[in-house]
Amino acid sequence: VVRRRLLQRYEHQPFISCLAGFYSCRWKRYQRRRTEPGKCCCKTVAFCFSLVFLYMWGEAKNDYNNFDWYNYGNLGFWFLWSLVLLIVAGILFTYIALLLVLAMCLLAEGQQLYLHWSHKIGTFLVLVFSITALFILSVLWKDQWKTVRLSFQITAPYLHIGAITVMVLLSWPVALHAIRADKKVVQVIIVGPYLAILLFLFLIPLGMYSPCIREMGTLGPKPALIGHRGAPMLAPENTEMSFQKTIEHGGGGLETDVTISYDGVPFLMHDSTLRRTTNIKEVYPNDTAQNAALFSWDTLQELNAGTWFLKDRPFSCMGSLSRADQNQAMNQSIYKLSNFLRLADSQNKLVIFDLYRPPEKHPYRNSWINRTLEVILNESGIRPHLVLWLENDMRSFVQSVAPGFQQTMGSKAPVEDLLMDNIVKLNLAYTEMSSEDIRNYAEVNITTNLYVVNEPWLFSLAWCSGAHSVTTDAIHKLKNLSQPLFLMTPQQYNIMWILTDLTSVLLISLIFAL
């Protein structure tokens, strides 16, 4: 408005025209400055959401296998969707982090923040992707937030150092903006929140808890390793080869799933159908959706239970399989419960299994437990103390006919109730891990097994929390851990905490002084 009026009135006077141009330039600069905080705020929000999702998905690595199998069941083909999602999250986080760093540098030097339209779209996509992914995973896989909470018990000391480092880096632009501010109120608005956050970070270790920060000599023995369906990263799950691999790698126990065939033969199968882990599509293409328990044992013996491992899952092995292992995997068949128990007894290994009740109209629908007990007690010859009996139905009857079984419960309960039912072991999902509960149960001689634990950091947390055993897919990795990761004494952590705080105070003070 000023420029227009001046030009209309003094269009022939060069000085006034120049003054009008000056006002116009100042007005445009003012408009840009009004929009710069909004642009920076948008980038910051996108950065925060992408950071949360990247951390959450990175810590969910323990359950990538479940995520990929879930997608396999819906899409019908195998692909490492979990890894793709991790790579995409990493790329988007790196992109938005670089944009934010560049914006902070420009603002710190008093430069204008010109954002190309492509970066505006990129920022919007990062924000939408991160929020959408977090929402979907929260709805379909909400237990992963429990994993994130557990991970803080391991990573919190190192996240604290990272947060302090970020605050040191931010001290430069904060100091510059505070010094350039004309009014004291503006300086307080800029510096006040920064110092409040910094003080909070300095004191947060006072409320931090990690079972891996403990005095020397208080760490319990390494948890025993129980092979989850054998060693499914090294061999086809629930096959003889898979259990042999678990034994070769020093596993203390074998976990499996038991289904009963139509003619009463208990066999090992996790899924309700045979589509995923056999070649039934080739042998009986019209019966792929039929319940596995509705096939006779003779029919089941015709199927191959190993070809899928190399065909559908080329990356399932953590290391490359030898030619001999590949040939062995290609020739696996469905494993009978009696043979499984004989193998465990010959190697003195504990066994634990989920027992699936047959569907309606199955001949053994109402006698499934009795039939399973017949095989365990009369056909397999396994010593009773090696059996961890998990099935809760007819537990009193099972105790009467097989008093030697180790009664195992699949959920937490008051100690009095567990003792009344003669429970000697709990088999819990790792998300229910609690060092306090584990310690309370151990005081009355009830041990705790956690499932399924694949990542070294999670195994380390279980070890520090006092778990007696874990069920794992990755026995070949966890067997090599000689002590928990991130293990330190309180004195070592206090030194790390104090040195971090003192160093940051010194650096921030120097930056503000400069």
UniProtKB/TrEMBL annotation:
It is a multi-pass membrane protein. The lineage of its organism: Eukaryota, Metazoa, Chordata, Craniata, Vertebrata. The chain crosses the membrane at residues 40-58, 78-109, 121-141, 156-176, 188-209. This is GDPD5 protein. It is found in: Membrane. GO terms for biological process: lipid metabolic process. Belongs to the glycerophosphoryl diester phosphodiesterase family. It comes from the Eukaryota. InterPro entries: GP_PDE_dom (IPR030395), PLC-like_Pdiesterase_TIM-brl (IPR017946). Its main location: membrane. Keywords: Glycoprotein, Hydrolase, Membrane, Transmembrane, Transmembrane helix. GO terms for molecular function: glycerophosphodiester phosphodiesterase activity.
